[in-house]
Amino acid sequence: MSHLFQPLNLGNLTLSNRIIIAPMCQYSAEDGAATDWHTIHLGRLALSGAGLLILEATAVNPRGRISYADLGLWDDRTERALATSLTAVRKYSSMPVGIQLAHAGRKASTQKPWDGGKVITPDNPHGWQTIAPSALPYGDEEPAPDAATPEQITEIITDFVEAAKRAERLGIEAIELHAAHGYLLHQFLSPLANQRSDQYGGSLENRMRLLLEITDKIKAAVSDNITLGVRISATDWVTGGWDVEQSLVLAKALEERGCQFIHVSTAGLSPLQQIPVAPGFQIPFATAIKQAVNIPVIAVGLITDAPEADNIIASGQADAVALARGILYNPHWVWHAAAELGEQVTAPPQYLRSSPHGMPSPIK
C-alpha cells in the first residue's frame, strides 16, 4: 500500500490522497474576472484524481494583481464570474477546491509572461503604481513602489478578509494565503524588501505582523468549515534575506493562531537569488518545518516521479506533495502514479476505458 494515496486531513477537510495541484497563474482573466479559459483549465485539472485543487493566485484588490490579466476576487462581478466556472466544474467533479489569496506588491503591474513579463509603468493603460512595505523596487531598473501607509495596510488587511468571505460564499473549502515568491506578504517578511521603522518593520516580530494579523482576522471572519493555510518561501536564497530559521519561527506562530497547513516553497524575493535547482531541491525546507510543527506540511518543487513522491511521504519528509508545471504537462499524472503504485483514484466513467491493457485499472 502506498503512502501517497492515503487520506490526509487539512483542518476539517479530508483529502482522498496526498497529491495537491499547486496554484498556477493563467493570466487569462478580464479585469479580474474568470473567463471560459478558467472553466476549461480548471475542469481538466478537476478530473485529474488529485486530492485538492488550489486555484491560481487570486488578487484581493486590483492593485494586487501581478498583471492586468490576473484573476481577482474583490467585488460582486469577480465573484459571479468565478462562480460560473466553479459551477460548471463541480457538475462533473467532487474534488475539493482551494484558492490562493494574494497581493503582488512591488511585483505587480507587469506584462503577461508570454509578452515578456516586464513592468508596465503607470502611464500605460494596462499599468498602475505599485505598493510595497518600502519604496524599494524589485529590480534596479524598475520604478519604485509606494511605501504603504498605515491606512493602506489596514485596507489591505480588510481586502484579504473580504476576499476570504467571498471564497466561502463560493463554496471553496480551503484558503491559502500567498506569502511566498516575492509578493506582498513575503515582502513584509524579508528584510531585503522591508525597511520600515514602524510596527510592521525592523524586528522579526514586526515583519511577521501583517501576515499574522491577516491570519487572525480571516480565522475570525470565516466558519470552521474553511481550512486556512499559508504558502511561504522558506528562503530568499540571498545572504541577509529571509531564511529557514526565520521560517521556523513563523511556522510556529502560524500554528499557534490556528493555521492548518503550511505549503513550503522558496525564492522569488530578489533578482540576486542563487538557487541550486535540482529535483526535490526544496524538500529539505519542508522537512525542517515539519519537524517544528504539528500541522500538515506540503512539499513542492520539481517532484516528477511517483515513487519519489511516495517516498517523501513514507519517510516523513512532508505530509503531502504539490505539483504545478508537471501536471500542466501531464494532466493525468495522478492516474499514472496510481497505476505505478498499484492504487486507484476517482475519475469520470467516460474515461474508464483508458486503463492500460493488462494492468489493473488505476481509475474507478
TrEMBL record:
SUPFAM superfamilies: FMN-linked oxidoreductases
Keyword Flavoprotein attributed: yes
Segments forming domain NADH:flavin oxidoreductase/NADH oxidase N-terminal: 4-341
Gene3D superfamilies with a match to the protein in the record: Aldolase class I
Superkingdom of the source species: Bacteria
InterPro entries noted in UniProt: Aldolase_TIM (IPR013785), OxRdtase_FMN_N (IPR001155), YqjM-like (IPR044152)
Names of the cofactor(s): FMN
GO molecular function: FMN binding; NADP binding; NADPH dehydrogenase activity
Keyword annotations of the record: Flavoprotein, FMN, NADP, Oxidoreductase
Protein name (Swiss-Prot/TrEMBL): NADH:flavin oxidoreductase/NADH oxidase
